[in-house]
Design a protein that fits this description.
heterodimer; A: Rossmann fold; 4 helices; 27% helix; B: alpha/beta; Rossmann fold; 39% helix
C-alpha cells in the first residue's frame, strides 16, 4: 500500500507537507526506463515474465515499466495488481482501502514475477506480498522493483531494481506521483 | 463498531464501505485457494437457536476463508435441552475464548441482549421478526453487482413482496435499500402487513400486478408457515394467484428487472419453479455473494476497528 494513502487515511488523518523534491517527473521517467532495461537484462528477455504492482502506489508504476518494456523490446508484458491488506502482520494497525483489489488472473506457476512498488521501507509489505503470491501458484522466481528505497528495513528483504536510494529519517514520508518524488512530513491535525 | 445487530448500526456510509470491501473478498473467493490469513488466530462461534442452512454455512465458510477458527453451537445437541438458560449458554460459549459470536434466535432482541452479557463482537444472524442485517447487505451487494455500477441505488425502485409482517429480511432490506437512496414499495395482502408502518420510509401496495411494470428489483419473501399461528390468507393457492411470481408475471416485468429471494424458496407459492432459473433471477448469486459479504462484515468487525484505536494511540 502506498505510504501516502496509508498515512493520510482517517483516523490518522494527517496532511502531507512536502519539504524537498527528490526526483523530477523526468527523473522518474528515466529511472523507469532504466529499471525496464535491467529487468530485461536480468531475465534474458521478457518470456514468461509478469509485472505485479502493489496496491496502490505500485500499480501505475508497474504499468509504466510495462510501457517502457514494450517501447524498448516490442513485447507486451502482462500487468497485475496485488492488495496485501489481508496478509499483513500488522493487520489492524493500518486502515484497509476497500477500492484496492487484487487482479492476478493467471496461475503464476513457472513464471517470473516482478513485484513493483513505489516506496520500499520496512519490507513488511513485500513480506505480505510474497505470502499472497504463493496463493496464486509457485512462481519460478520473484524479483522486486521499487522507485525509492528509503531504508529502515525490519526484515531481511532487498530489492533487485531500484530507482533511487534515498536516506531518510524514520518519521519522514516519501511521496511518489506522476509529477515526481517528494520528501516531506505528515502533519497530524 | 464492535457488533452488527441491525442495519442501522452501519448507516449509509458503513453499508457502502462493506459493499466495497466485499469486492475484495469476491476476488479472494474466485481464487484457486480461496483463503487469506487476515483473521488467523481469531475464533468465531455460530450460536443458532433456530434452524438454518445457508446463513450458518455462509458464516462458517466466510470465517474459514479468513483463516479464523470456527465453533458451532446447535441447540438440538446442546445442554439447552437439559434446561440451561440462554444467558448461561452464551456465557459458556464465550468462556471458551471467542472473538465474535454469530447469533440467531426466534425472539427479537436476543442478539442485543447477548451483546450486553459478553465482550465478543455480536453479529445478528436473524432475531425473530426483527432484523437480519447481513442478508440485507448481501442483497444490496448482489443488486450493485448485477447492475455493474458502484452506486446504482438512488431512485432504484425496489418492491418487496409477501409476508412483510413476519419478515426480518424485509425490515433489514427496507432499512438498507432506503438508506442507500432506493425507493421501496411493500406489496402484500393487508393481513401480512405489519400493524403499523409509521416511520417506515416505504410506499405500500396491495396489488402486485399494479407495481410490476414500474419496478427495477422484485424481492420475493418466503411465506413463513412456521411463524403463522392464524389464518392470514385463505389458501396457498390463492396467495400464489395474487402475489406469486408466476412465469406470466415475470414476463410483464421490464426487461432489466431483477428477481430476488432470500431462500429457502417455497416453489410454486411465492415463486414459480421456472422463474427462479430465469437469467434475471439473482437467487443463486445471492447465496454466492453471501460468503464474500460476510467476510467483509467479519473483517470489518475483527480486523479494522482495533486499527482505528491503534492508529490513534500511535499518532
Amino acid at each position: 500500500m502506498a505510504e501516502r494513502e496509508r498515512l493520510l487515511t482517517p483516523p490518522l488523518g494527517g496532511v502531507f507537507v512536502a519539504r524537498a523534491q527528490v526526483m523530477t517527473a523526468e527523473d522518474v521517467s528515466r529511472a523507469t526506463t532504466r529499471i525496464a532495461h535491467e529487468v530485461a537484462e536480468r531475465n534474458h528477455g521478457l518470456d514468461d515474465l509478469v509485472l505485479v504492482g502493489l496496491q496502490t502506489g505500485g500499480v501505475p508504476l508497474a504499468r509504466r515499466v510495462a510501457d517502457a518494456l514494450e517501447t524498448a523490446y516490442g513485447q507486451a508484458v502482462p500487468v497485475g495488481s496485488l492488495d496485501v491488506a489481508f496478509y499483513r502482520d500488522d493487520i489492524g494497525l493500518r486502515p484497509v482501502l476497500p477500492e484496492a483489489v487484487t487482479n492476478i488472473p493467471w496461475d503464476l506457476t513457472g513464471l517470473t514475477v516482478v513485484l513493483v512498488d513505489d516506496v520500499f521501507f520496512t519490507g513488511r509489505t513485500v513480506r505480505a506480498a510474497l505470502n499472497a503470491l504463493a496463493d496464486h501458484g509457485r512462481a519460478r522466481s520473484v524479483q522486486l522493483a521499487v522507485m525509492v528505497d528509503r531504508g529502515h528495513r525490519e526484515l531481511p528483504i532487498r530489492p533487485d531494481f531500484v530507482g533511487k536510494n534515498l536516506p531518510t529519517r524514520r518519521d519522514e514520508m516519501v511521496d511518489v506521483s506522476a509529477s515526481g518524488v517528494m520528501l516531506g512530513d505528515v502533519v497530524v491535525k | 463498531m464492535t457488533s452488527l445487530l441491525a442495519v442501522e448500526d452501519l448507516g449509509a456510509t458503513g453499508i457502502r464501505e462493506v459493499l466495497r470491501l466485499a469486492d475484495s473478498f469476491v476476488e479472494v473467493s474466485e481464487r484457486a485457494i480461496p483463503r487469506v490469513p487476515a483473521l488467523r488466530g481469531r475464533t468465531v462461534a455460530t450460536v443458532f437457536f433456530e434452524d438454518s442452512t445457508r446463513t450458518r454455512l455462509s458464516f462458517e465458510t466466510a470465517a474459514k476463508r479468513l483463516s479464523a477458527d470456527t465453533m458451532t453451537f446447535s441447540v438440538s445437541t446442546s445442554s439447552v435441552n437439559k434446561g440451561e438458560s440462554l444467558r448461561d449458554t452464551v456465557e459458556t460459549v464465550a468462556a471458551m475464548g471467542i472473538d465474535a459470536m454469530i447469533v440467531r434466535h426466534r425472539s427479537a432482541g436476543v442478539p442485543w441482549q447477548v451483546s450486553r452479557w459478553i465482550d465478543a463482537s455480536i453479529i445478528n444472524a436473524g432475531d425473530g421478526w426483527h432484523e437480519h442485517p447481513t442478508q440485507a447487505l448481501l442483497d444490496c451487494y448482489t443488486v450493485r453487482q448485477a447492475l455493474g455500477r458502484d452506486d446504482p441505488f438512488p431512485g432504484l425502485r425496489v418492491a418487496i413482496v409477501g409476508d412483510i409482517k413476519h419478515s426480518r429480511v424485509a425490515r433489514s432490506n427496507v432499512a438498507a435499500f432506503s438508506a442507500l437512496g432506493a425507493r421501496v414499495t411493500l406489496v402484500a395482502p393487508p393481513t401480512l402487513m405489519p400493524p403499523s408502518l409509521e416511520g417506515w420510509p416505504v410506499e405500500v401496495s396491495h396489488d402486485l400486478d399494479a407495481v410490476l411494470a414500474d419496478t427495477d428489483v422484485v424481492y420475493l419473501l418466503r411465506i413463513q408457515a412456521e411463524r403463522m399461528n392464524e389464518a392470514l390468507f385463505p389458501s396457498l393457492r390463492e396467495y400464489s394467484a395474487r402475489y406469486g411470481m408466476t412465469r406470466e408475471r415475470a414476463g410483464r416485468l421490464c426487461s432489466s428487472a431483477l428477481i430476488m429471494h432470500p431462500g429457502p424458496m417455497n416453489r410454486g407459492v411465492e415463486i414459480a419453479a421456472e422463474v427462479s432459473s430465469l437469467p434475471n433471477s439473482l437467487i443463486t448469486r445471492q447465496v454466492t455473494n453471501g460468503v464474500a459479504v460476510r467476510m467483509a462484515v467479519l473483517f470489518r468487525l475483527l480486523g479494522a476497528p482495533e486499527a482505528s484505536e491503534a492508529l490513534v494511540a500511535h499518532a
